[in-house]
Request: fold
Amino acid sequence: MINLNTKFGRVARKFLKSEYFIWLTTTDSSGAPQPKPVWFIWEKDSFLLYSQPQAYKLRHIRRNPQVSLHFNTTDKKGEKRMVVFTGKANLDKKAPSAHKHRAYIKKYKSGIARLGATPEQFSGDYSVAVRITPARLRGWE
Reply:
């Protein structure tokens, strides 16, 4: 379990509460890193995101569930507040559909509308819930 009560943990917690997307890095069949920005929410000491069923990231996770997640830095040079999580991803069949997840819809309702979709349509397209349980937190402030 990640300790978000340390000095650096509190920095990470601010990112978890305020950031709109996070970079998820999986590895492809050759072992090459494949970063992709994703929408997420933080709940139950884990990340929850939704994916299209045919997305490459799901193939990568099935092959190798070890992933990393990081936020953009807060300055132009990239020297301040780097936050990186590493952990294990799995498909979460118990998670509610995206449109039924209040916190997710509250955070991304306007983004879904910008995609030209309703929450229900988005939920149909992004029907696979992925839960990532972080094992490590590193970075600097």
Notes: The chain has one domain: 7-97+128-140. The mean pLDDT is 94.
